[in-house]
């Protein structure tokens, strides 16, 4: 048998030197970055710092924020809203999705109403929640919760319904009972969908949290942006936007890291 | 002729069984038709197909890529219903999934969240095999298809050919009396495919399973089968049935150079539809 | 599951399946109407009996307000304001996005150098830029148009680029060998090949852009549906907020239907 000579993708392929650093490309990117900074500076000078803060001003402000530790209060507020909202929204979404997955008729009836709420701008719902729950963390948590709920719900629902027809057929041929099908095929398949949903919902949770803060809050990244804007503090606006951008960019690799660390795949793959 | 590594005594015994006049029929379809609607058109996937598959026979369904052959296999597996006619397994109508067969489908039905080992153990878990038996069998069948060492890899990490072999092992591992195979070796490279032919022939000769094998490859059909059923697509009908009277065990590697084999290949080639593939999946 | 043999058997089965399917979807629509009516009834009863309509509003109150606002023209005025900023920014952004995609294709090294920065801005929630745009362009329609334009550019750009890249390079080369100019290449090969991607991009961008417009109006505006929400919010007017939400749902539905119709018409034309 020639099994051993076959290449296992992608581990072996990667090790075989597929990843070569493209130094020239990186060089161009750095150069572009420097040029962009220069253009930024030029724009600030040309238009006036009321409209565009200079890179130096932004840097100074950021240093100040970090040194005084004030930024961490706001980062914590936003993070807190996100985490709690994700936890609650995911749980509700999974339960609702799996439940309605088994009751397709009910799901079909309820679906247009869910979609109507889903289609509303988060910014439009925020004032309602702030009216109901005040300007503290709660209203933002509810907003994040609603957004995350819909994402995980749709994913869990599809996971419960659309378990690959062919996988089910194959297990039926093996002699699988209905319980076998649920435990060994439908449930694990749904879990995969749910994980995908959670992953997807993290950036949306950030957006929801920030929007809520921008409308009314006592702390948070969105709050920082709005406060700066109300005080015509252009440097503050730019600094807050920069932090927000850094957080958004860092979010994706962070999720991947958490995913790899968690023992999810091993627990799913184990046989008892 | 023992380079295939088969015990000659079992080969002769198996051969004799097959030549017995009163062979019990395992699978039978009579005037089987399947029509389905696609948009506004009616598609006749199967048109009054009749076929008896004897116990222990190796039957190949040969035809251009198209719906009829896979549909027929699905009906035999109890996964699809049909518009008219009869489909019987051991004399009884096939109702619901047929759990006495193993089914190697064209598509990949491995569970992506289980390792190779986990996937292989699945049918054994379902059928209540003990832990030791599961371990012993998975090890045996993994090495049988040449995947020893890949126990803890996930299907996503395997190449297409390796996944196909895993599927084959999974369909064999619970020892079904009948095996339905839908172009199982199509994705493999030539050498690997031939070695799989060898494995399959050996298994068949040692266990006497009934095999219904769908293929569009004439060489494969002649190499493996007792009888080759040539089908046409759209509508799916049986054009002709050719009995392959070549002695066993057959040399899967060098058989193609044997004039007797070539004669069969030529006859089948002439019998096939040349109108090309049916369009669109089922 | 063997039915009667022969042709009648097969036709009968197909017809029966079609009838059953139609009956089921009729039942579902009925179920939806009943469920909706049930929800409204529960809401109204709750508002009348034990809940405080100050917090929950009620279908009756919302219906009343809709009538009032329709009569005095507020709905039309504000919807028109939102729609005009949205549509201007949306189509402007779509065209710009396509142009940028073509440029990115023609200047791959420039695009590659700029890519990490483009991705960074792409991952930023663009609604957060609204205060900046309001600072720059004022609280009138211009800031909203700018934000919608900005949001739309990104989505259409990415999709358009993917569409352009999906066009077989060998096809492009053979057409070039035939002697086609850049413009001919664009109009005859690249544009048709990537249009469906662009339309998909527009479909994705539409809700995002609309939400952006509304958000910007909430943050600082004197007109528009978002302004109406913020105004009602400031007045602690739950009914007002909910009424605008209802209008929003209707407007969004009409816009998506419009875009879907556009896509279908385009598919047919191909």
CATH fold-level topology of the largest domain in chain C: MetI-like fold
Order of helices and strands of chain C: HHHHHHHHHHH
List the uncertain runs of chain C: 1-8
Mean pLDDT of chain C: 86
Annotated CATH homologous superfamily of the largest domain in chain C: MetI-like
Shape of chain C: flat
Quote the average pLDDT of chain B. Answer: 83
CATH domain class of the largest domain in chain C: Mainly Alpha
**What distance separates the N and C termini of chain C?**
42 Å
Number of domains of chain C: 2
What is the secondary structure topology, with strand pairs?
The complex is a heterotrimer of chains A (272), B (282) and C (270).
Chain A (H helix, E strand, L loop, with lengths): L10 H8 L4 H25 L7 H14 L1 H33 L1 H15 L3 H12 L3 H25 L3 H9 L4 H38 L5 H10 L3 H28 L2 H6 L3
Helix pairs in contact in A: 3-11, 4-7, 4-9, 4-10, 6-7, 6-9, 7-9, 8-9, 9-10, 9-11, 10-11
Chain B lengths: L7 H12 L5 E14 L2 E14 L3 E5 L4 H10 L7 E6 L2 E2 L7 E4 L11 H11 L4 H14 L15 H13 L5 E5 L7 H18 L2 E6 L2 H7 L2 E6 L4 E7 L15 H13 L11
Parallel strand pairs in B: 3-8, 3-9, 6-7, 7-8
Antiparallel strand pairs in B: 1-2, 1-4, 4-5, 9-10
Helix pairs in contact in B: 3-4, 3-5, 4-5, 7-8
Chain C lengths: L6 H43 L3 H4 L2 H13 L2 H33 L1 H16 L6 H8 L3 H26 L2 H9 L4 H38 L5 H10 L3 H32 L1
Helix pairs in contact in C: 3-11, 4-7, 4-9, 4-10, 6-7, 7-9, 9-10, 9-11, 10-11
Describe this structure in a few short sentences.
The complex is a heterotrimer of chains A (272), B (282) and C (270). Chain A is mainly alpha-helical and 272 residues long.
What does this structure look like?
The complex is a heterotrimer of chains A (272), B (282) and C (270). Chain A is an all-alpha fold. Chain A is built from 12 helices and no strands. Chain A has helices at 11-18, 23-47, 55-68, 70-102, 104-118, 122-133, 137-161, 165-173, 178-215, 221-230, 234-261, 264-269. In chain A, helix 7 runs antiparallel to helix 9. Chain B has 282 residues and is α/β, with parallel strands linked by helices. Chain B has 8 helices and 10 strands. In chain B, the strands form 2 sheets. Chain B has a 6-stranded mixed β-sheet, sandwiched between helices. Residues 1-21 and 276-282 of chain B have low confidence and may be disordered. Chain C is mainly α and 270 residues long. Chain C is 86% helix and 0% strand. Chain C contains 11 helices and no strands. Classes of the chains: A mainly alpha (272), B alpha/beta (282), C mainly alpha (270). Chains A and C meet through helix 2, helix 5, helix 6, helix 9 and helix 10 of A and helix 1, helix 5, helix 6, helix 9 and helix 10 of C.
């Amino acid at each position: 048998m020639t099994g051993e000579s076959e290449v296992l993708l992608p581990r072996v392929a990667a090790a075989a030197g597929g990843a070569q650093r493209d130094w020239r490309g990186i060089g161009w990117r750095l150069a572009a970055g420097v040029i962009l900074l220069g253009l930024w500076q030029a724009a600030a000078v040309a238009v006036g710092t009321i409209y565009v803060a200079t890179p130096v001003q932004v840097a100074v402000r950021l240093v100040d924020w970090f040194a005084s530790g004030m930024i961490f209060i706001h980062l914590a507020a936003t993070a807190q809203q996100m985490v709690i909202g994700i936890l609650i929204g995911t749980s509700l979404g999974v339960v609702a999705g799996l439940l309605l997955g088994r009751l397709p008729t009910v799901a079909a009836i309820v679906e247009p109403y869910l979609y109507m709420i889903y289609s509303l701008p988060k910014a439009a719902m925020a004032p309602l929640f702030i009216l109901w729950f005040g300007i503290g963390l709660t209203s933002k948590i509810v907003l994040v919760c609603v957004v995350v709920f819909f994402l995980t719900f749709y994913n869990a629902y599809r996971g419960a319904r659309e378990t690959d027809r062919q996988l089910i057929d194959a297990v039926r041929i093996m002699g699988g009972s209905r319980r076998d099908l649920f435990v060994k095929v439908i449930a694990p398949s749904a879990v995969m969908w749910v994980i995908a949903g959670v992953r997807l919902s993290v950036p949306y949770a950030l957006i929801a949290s920030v929007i809520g803060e921008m409308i009314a809050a006592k702390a948070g990244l969105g709050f920082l942006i709005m406060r700066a804007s109300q005080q015509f503090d252009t440097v503050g606006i730019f600094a807050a936007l920069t932090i927000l951008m850094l957080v958004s960019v860092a979010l994706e690799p962070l999720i991947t890291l958490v995913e790899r660390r968690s023992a999810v795949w091993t627990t799913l793959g184990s046989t008892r | 002729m023992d380079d295939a590594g088969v015990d000659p005594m079992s080969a002769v015994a198996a051969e004799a069984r097959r030549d017995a006049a009163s062979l019990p029929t395992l699978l039978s379809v009579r005037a089987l038709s399947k029509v389905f609607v696609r948009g506004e058109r009616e598609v006749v996937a199967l048109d009054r197909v009749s076929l008896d598959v004897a116990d222990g026979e190796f039957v190949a369904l040969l035809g251009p890529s198209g719906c009829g052959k896979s549909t027929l296999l699905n009906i035999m597996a109890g996964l699809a219903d049909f518009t008219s006619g009869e489909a019987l397994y051991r004399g009884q109508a096939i109702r619901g999934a047929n759990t006495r067969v193993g089914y190697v489908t064209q598509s990949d039905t491995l569970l992506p969240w289980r390792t190779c080992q986990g996937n292989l153990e699945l049918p054994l878990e379902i059928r209540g095999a003990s832990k030791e038996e599961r371990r012993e069998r998975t090890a045996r069948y993994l090495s049988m298809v040449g995947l020893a060492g890949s126990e803890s890899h996930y299907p996503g990490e395997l190449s297409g050919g390796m996944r196909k072999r895993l599927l084959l092992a999974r369909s064999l591992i619970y020892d079904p009396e009948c095996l339905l195979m839908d172009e199982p070796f199509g994705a493999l490279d030539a050498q690997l495919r031939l070695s799989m032919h060898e494995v399959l022939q050996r298994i068949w000769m040692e266990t006497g399973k009934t095999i219904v094998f769908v293929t569009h490859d004439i060489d494969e059909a002649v190499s493996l089968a007792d009888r080759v059923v040539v089908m046409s697509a759209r509508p799916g009908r049986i054009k002709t049935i050719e009995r392959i009277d070549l002695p066993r065990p057959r040399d899967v590697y060098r058989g193609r150079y044997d004039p007797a084999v070539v004669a069969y290949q030529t006859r089948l080639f002439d019998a096939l539809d040349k109108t090309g593939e049916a369009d669109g999946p089922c | 599951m063997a039915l009667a043999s022969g042709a009648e058997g097969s036709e009968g089965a197909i017809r029966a399946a079609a009838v059953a399917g139609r009956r089921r979807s009729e039942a579902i629509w009925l179920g939806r109407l009943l469920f909706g009516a049930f929800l409204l009834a529960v809401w109204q009863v709750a508002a009348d009996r034990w809940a405080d309509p100050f917090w929950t509003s009620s279908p009756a109150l919302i219906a009343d307000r809709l009538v009032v606002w329709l009569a005095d023209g507020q709905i039309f005025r504000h919807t028109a304001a939102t729609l005009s900023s949205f549509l201007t920014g949306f189509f402007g952004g779509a065209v710009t996005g396509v142009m940028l995609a073509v440029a990115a294709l023609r200047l791959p090294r420039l695009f590659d150098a700029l890519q990490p920065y483009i991705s960074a801005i792409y991952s930023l929630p663009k609604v957060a830029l609204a205060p900046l745009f309001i600072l720059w362009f004022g609280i009138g329609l211009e800031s909203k148009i700018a934000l919608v334009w900005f949001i739309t550019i990104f989505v259409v750009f990415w999709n358009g680029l993917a569409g352009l890249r999906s066009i077989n390079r060998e096809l492009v080369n053979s057409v070039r060998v035939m002697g086609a100019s850049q413009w001919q290449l664009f109009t005859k090969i690249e544009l048709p090949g990537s249009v469906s991607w662009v339309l998909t991009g527009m479909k994705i961008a539409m809700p995002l852009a609309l939400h952006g417009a509304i958000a910007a109006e909430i943050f600082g505006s004197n007109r528009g549906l978002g302004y109406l929400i913020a105004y009602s919010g400031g007045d602690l007017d739950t009914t007002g907020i909910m009424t605008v939400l209802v209008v929003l749902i209707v407007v969004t539905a009409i816009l998506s239907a419009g875009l879907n119709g556009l896509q279908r018409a385009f598919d047919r034309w191909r």
